[in-house]
Amino acid sequence: MTNLKKNFVPVTQPYLPPLDEFRPYLEDIWDRKWVTNNGWYHQQLEKELCDYLGVEHLSLFSNGTLALITALQALKITGEVITTPFSFVATSHALHWNGIRPVFVDIDPISLNLDPERIEAAITPQTTALLPVHVYANPCDVERIEAIADTYGLRVIYDAAHAFGVRVNDRSVLNYGDMSVLSFHGTKVFNTFEGGAIVCRDEKTKRRIDNLKNFGFVDETTVVAPGINGKMNEVQAAFGLLQLKHMGEINEKRARIDERYREAFKNVQGIELHHVPTHCTKNYAYFPILVKPDFPISRDDLYDELRTKEVAARRYFYPLISEFPMYRGLPSAGQHNLPVATAASRQVLCLPIFPALAEQDQERIIETVLECAWRNRRAS
Questions:
Q1: Residue-wise pLDDT tens for the chain (380 aa)?
Q2: Cα dihedral angle (27, 30, 34, 38), rounded to 10 degrees?
Q3: Which positions are catalytic residues (predicted)?
Q4: Pairing between β-strand 80-83 and β-strand 101-104 as defined by DSSP bridges
Q5: Is residue 1 assigned to a domain?
């Protein structure tokens, strides 16, 4: 996210409304003298997010990783959990921090999400839950996953870090599973600098989550669980309320960039665009491409070429989680078990997409990719 040079284009930037719009919120927080611990803005943001996202019960957190750790605690998940290796490492770290063993399953080559066809073969007597990820905000096959979970009596927690505002058949994707966990990090479509949330099914579960994120307190003198400090503060919450007012503009600008990229790369041999089904809404969180073997240069060479043009494309997600030292010794982490994920991690490249991305920078990105495609093809 940091600009290394004046003209350097990051893969993403947080949307920052005019400072004058945020000042009244800060002044009100100063006047109230209530800066954290379930303050007015915290409560208001939970309410407005429920309305905006189409969910009933949502609990705010200071970041998405603490939210994911707490979701596993709230459901008392133990043993083994089936998950994807093609994600940000926090997905598996949350399991590790809870003493849970990740079991990696390969991904679908089109959606790049956890492949339902491979889940059942990985289930053992120690399996207690599934932890799929809506990668790049492309929803998992939620109906198939729900059917598998029901058959085997498993919990489902969705890592929905990318999936803010995404809907499936006109229903919020966050309403599937036992819980969904959001991230409001500065790189996300909706951000509160740092932040996150858990969406759950009922008021009783929300109360347990709220207790756990506040050290287990239920009142001034009563602690009912070994909780954690995961509370979102008032400045974060106020910024979130201001962000919500601009979501229409944010989505519109992201959609235009997505459309421009798709038009530019639709007929480029060796570039595969990520597909989102028509029954799902997009939030344009990322713009991944797969650099296939028939592209004239490798993914890493294209990455380097963009860097020389001061464009910070990112190889999300490379390496696979299963290739990091703390996980690669697991029986499920071998490349032979994860051929699709392994190939995707070596081909994927996320191009910059964010509301403030200038048209001339978009043009520079497009021209660099096309120049690599045609210049190198002519040379070969």
A1: 444 566 789 999 999 999 999 999 999 999 999 999 999 999 999 999 999 999 999 999 999 999 999 999 999 999 999 999 999 999 999 999 999 999 999 999 999 999 999 999 999 999 999 999 999 999 999 999 999 999 999 999 999 999 999 999 999 999 999 999 999 999 999 999 999 999 999 999 999 999 999 999 999 999 999 999 999 999 999 999 999 999 999 999 999 999 999 999 999 999 999 988 888 999 999 999 999 999 999 999 999 999 999 999 999 999 999 999 999 999 999 999 999 999 999 999 999 999 999 999 999 999 999 999 997 665 55
A2: 20
A3: 188
A4: parallel
A5: no
Give the full edge-to-edge strand order of the sheet including 101-104: 57-61, 196-200, 179-183, 155-159, 127-131, 80-83, 101-104
Q: What is the C-alpha separation between 53 and 58, in angstroms, rounded?
A: 10
Give how far Cα 204 sits from Cα of 31, 75, 113, Å.
33, 12, 31
Q: Distance between CA atoms of 374 and 167, rounded to whole angstroms? A: 38
The residue whose two tokens read 């939970």 is 46
- Do 236 and 89 share a structural domain? yes
CA nearest neighbour of 63 among 188, 245, 211:
188
Closest CA to 72 of 233, 235, 209: 209
**Which residues make Cβ contacts (< 8 Å) with residue 379, sequence separation at least 6?**
296
- Whether this model's pTM surpasses 0.90: yes
State which residues form the domain around 254: 247-379
Rounded to a whole number of angstroms, the CA Rg of the chain reads 21
Q: Is residue 2 part of a domain?
A: no
DSSP 8-state class, residue 275: P
Alpha carbons 75 and 189: distance in angstroms, whole number:
28
Rounded Cα distance, 49 and 239, in Å: 13
Tell me whether residue 3 is in a domain.
no
3-state DSSP call for residue 368?
helix
Specify whether 166 is located in the same domain as 277. Answer: no
CATH number of the domain encompassing residue 91: 3.40.640.10
Q: Which residues are designated catalytic?
A: 188
Residue that the structure tokens 């592209």 belong to: 295
